[in-house]
Design brief:
This protein is mainly β. The protein contains one helix and eight strands.
């Protein structure tokens, strides 16, 4: 396994939720990222969110397409996020971000891996991407 590390800027904005999503009290957001470091590129994606006010349970799922360069290889791939937490217990947070198998294109064909998102006390985002390329 190889590791790529760096930072990213992210813009998350509210988007129109479907009628069924509104009935269920779900939210929808757009994702727009710029990656710097050993993974250089951009991503565009969408996120669905849900929360239970009475218990503080929260969750999100997201899919984003990353286009850029990794280890000298150019192409794109899809990342899938799933996360849960309880707002009353920040240590309950669970986040998994994985490369969708078979989603790599061009020089990133066959890419597999897991991306860890780190947020420091000032809100700055960084990543640690553990990956394999054939």
């Amino acid at each position: 396994m190889k590791h790529a590390k760096g930072t990213f800027e992210v813009k998350i904005a509210p988007a129109e939720t479907s009628a069924i999503g509104k009935e269920a009290g779900m939210g929808r957001m757009t994702i727009d990222k710029v990656f710097a470091g050993e993974l250089e590129g951009t991503s565009k994606g969408e996120m669905l969110t849900g929360m239970t006010e009475s218990t503080g349970a929260m969750a999100y799922v997201a899919i984003e397409r990353v286009t850029g360069k990794l280890d000298g290889h150019a192409g794109s791939f899809i990342l899938m996020h799933n996360a849960t937490m309880n707002k009353n217990d920040p240590k309950s947070s669970r986040l998994q971000v994985v490369v969708v198998p078979g989603s790599g294109t061009d020089g990133l064909g066959g890419l597999t891996g897991t991306l860890t998102i780190l947020i420091d006390g000032t809100g700055k985002h960084s990543y640690d991407f553990e990956y394999e390329l054939p």
